[in-house]
Amino acid sequence: MSSTTDKIKGAANEALGKAKQGVGDVTGNDKLKAEGAAQELKGKAQGTVGDAKSAVKSATDKL
């Protein structure tokens, strides 16, 4: 995957995770809150991977 794809998927997972947590809070569903938290963390990790790929590409382009 490209760095842009990783960043986009990461942002989407973060947003969906936050939404799940919100719905879990409103409904009192602990399982949904936990799933949302996990999905949000996954999204943050994907975004970090995208940032790292961008940094590596930038560094190699300077060589």
Question: Any descriptors?
Answer:
63 residues; mainly alpha; 90% helix
In short:
The protein is an all-alpha fold. Helices cover 90% and strands 0% of the residues.
Provide a descriptive summary of the structure in words:
The protein has 63 residues and is an all-alpha fold. 90% of the residues lie in helices and 0% in strands. The chain has helices at 3-27, 30-61.
The overall strand count is 0
Q: What would you call the shape?
A: rod-shaped
Order of SSEs, N→C? HH
Structural class by sheet pairing and helices = mainly alpha
**Estimated share of beta-strand residues:** under 5%
What kind of sheet is the major sheet? none
Low-confidence stretches: none
Fraction of residues in helices? over 70%
Q: Count every helix, treating DSSP H or I runs of 4 or more residues as helices.
A: 2
